[in-house]
């Protein structure tokens, strides 16, 4: 009997949890749509009519409201048809494809932005957060909440932009901060020719598992930092391949930056100044 009672309680709690989650997600989804205002208006009107009917002892209005409640489901489908269609489309996309598709879109936006920044020799520093959180750096920068977009990244780093100094931090497929100040590498073995952006990229890659992308404003050369290693003179095809391995295939940063052919074909962070190419 005790086990049956516990099972009934657990089932009830689980059911309430599911309903609470569905109601919350539904309201959250509708918060910025036109249907949300329609729903709010219907709710306010219904409450007002119900209170008025009880206060004045109306008889017709309550009967009409009960009849309308019976057809409410059909009315809601008609009212929220655009929102429902979008919700089901997003659900299907999320369940089957959204993970890899969003990561590939992220890589594509980054590649396009880096190519344009490199072509025009506009300095840039972009940090891609991975498993180790860097919330402290985000809080100290200028907080943003925008989907990663190549044109947005280019505008942030455009010369004389208010946000072009410091780093952009990306979490998932969102730009969460700009003008972030990163820790500089403490290593004394790196080339003195490396600028502040490259030292900051190495610093964040030493302290966390984040990956940093750097565009030199002097030469337009693109570099990639991870696991305390800096790969310079990156070709776009190589960069695209590495980003896909890191963020689509979830490859280990250690394998990419220390054991892969890319690491052997490019300059490392820990070479003497005479051996380093100027970035």
Structural topology:
Elements: H1 2-30, H2 34-56, H3 60-70, H4 72-79, H5 81-96, H6 98-119, E1 124-128, H7 135-140, E2 142-147, H8 150-157, E3 167-171, E4 174-180, H9 196-207, E5 211-215, E6 222-226, E7 229-231, H10 236-247, H11 253-259, H12 261-265
Description:
The structure is a single chain. This protein is of the alpha+beta class and 279 residues long. The protein starts with a helix and ends in a 14-residue tail after the last helix. It has twelve helices and seven strands. A hairpin with a 2-residue loop joins strand 6 and strand 7 (229-231). It has a seven-stranded mixed beta sheet with strand order 2-4-3-1-5-6-7, sandwiched between helices. It has two domains: 2-96, no CATH class; 98-265, YojJ-like (1.
Q: What is the tally of helical segments?
A: 12
CATH architecture identity of the largest domain: 3-Layer(aba) Sandwich
Shape: elongated
- What are the secondary-structure elements, in order, as H or E? HHHHHHEHEHEEHEEEHHH
Q: Could you give a short account of the major beta sheet? A: 7 strands, mixed
Strand fraction: 5-15%
Unreliably modeled segments: 264-279
The level of helicity is 55-70%
The radius of gyration computed from the alpha-carbon positions, rounded to a whole number of angstroms, is: 27 Å
Q: Considering the protein shown, what is the CATH homologous superfamily of the largest domain?
A: DNA integrity scanning protein, DisA, N-terminal domain
**Oligomer class:** single chain
Q: How many domains would you count in the coordinates?
A: 2
Q: Would you tell me the structural class of the helices and strands? A: alpha+beta
- Mean of residue pLDDT? 78
């Amino acid at each position: 009997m005790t086990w049956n009672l516990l099972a009934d309680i657990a089932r009830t709690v689980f059911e309430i949890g599911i309903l609470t989650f569905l109601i919350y997600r539904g309201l959250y989804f509708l918060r910025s749509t036109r249907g949300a205002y329609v729903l709010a208006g219907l709710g306010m009107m219904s409450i007002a009519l119900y209170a008025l009917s009880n206060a004045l002892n109306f008889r017709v209005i309550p009967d009409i409201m009960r009849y309308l409640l019976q057809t409410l489901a059909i009315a809601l489908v008609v009212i929220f048809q655009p929102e429902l269609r979008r919700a089901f489309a997003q659900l299907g996309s999320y369940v089957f494809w959204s993970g890899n598709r969003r990561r590939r879109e992220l890589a594509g936006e980054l590649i396009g932005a880096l190519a344009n920044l490199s072509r025009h020799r506009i300095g840039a520093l972009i940090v891609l957060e991975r498993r180790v959180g860097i919330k402290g750096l985000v809080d100290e920068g200028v907080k943003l909440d925008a989907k990663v977009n190549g044109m947005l990244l280019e505008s942030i780093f455009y010369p004389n932009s208010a946000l072009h100094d410091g780093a952009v931090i990306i979490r998932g497929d969102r730009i969460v901060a700009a003008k972030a100040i990163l820790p500089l590498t403490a290593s004394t073995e790196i080339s003195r020719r490396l600028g502040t952006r490259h030292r900051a990229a190495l610093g964040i890659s030493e302290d966390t598992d984040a990956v940093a992308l750097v565009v030199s404003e002097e030469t337009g050369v693109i570099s990639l930092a991870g696991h305390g290693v800096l790969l310079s003179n990156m070709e776009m095809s190589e960069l695209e391949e590495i980003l896909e391995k890191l963020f689509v295939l979830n490859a280990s940063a250690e394998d990419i930056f220390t054991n892969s052919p890319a690491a052997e074909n490019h300059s490392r962070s820990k070479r003497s100044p005479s051996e380093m190419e100027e970035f």
